[in-house]
Amino acid sequence: MPRVIAGQYKGRVLAAPEGDKTRPTTDKVKEALFSIIQTRVPDSRLLDLYSGSGQIAIEALSRGAEKTVLVERNPKACNAIRENLTKLDIGEDEASVMRMNVADALLLLAKEKASFDIIYMDPPYKDAPKAAAAAARVISQNGLLEEDGLFIVEHSRDFDIKDSVTELESFRSCSYGLTVLTFFKKGI
After folding, report:
1. Which of 22, 45, 61, 129 has the greatest count of CB atoms below 10 A from its CB?
2. Domains plus CATH for the chain?
3. What number is the average pLDDT over the span 91-113?
4. Please, what's the b/e burial string for 66-91 (b: 16 or more CB within 10 A of its CB; e: otherwise)?
């Protein structure tokens, strides 16, 4: 079961979707991620793509993020997200859930002129290169990432996604066992 590592909701255990359709980010990877981005989280707007249980967005809220948007199309995962938000008394002003695929969600957010300080993406590992490239294209073309924002992709070490994401500049990649976090920003 995922849990919140730090902040306002520290130690709270989160519900996870039943079945094997989602793969929760490990505490080790989540702790490393938030150690890297800790100064950017307070008062930020975070977009969590392929949200699963919602633990990345909830961790960000626990650490002071202003607003999160969670995108997940799996109905069981959406139920787990809503259960977690309700359990922690997190309202829609802090977290909104979009039950749809990532491509449609990005286009809808672009139409709404949304923009984010941090966009986190944790697609199924086998789909990561293609999914990251497609998302980065929409993010770049529609101004979904703030000028100094971060696009972060969690993926398997079996794939080097830097070459597939051409619209944004890769500047850091960190490995944690079989998992890699690759960080992108707008090009200079």
Report:
1. 61
2. 27-185 (3.40.50.150)
3. 97
4. ebbbbbbebeebbebbbbbbeebebe
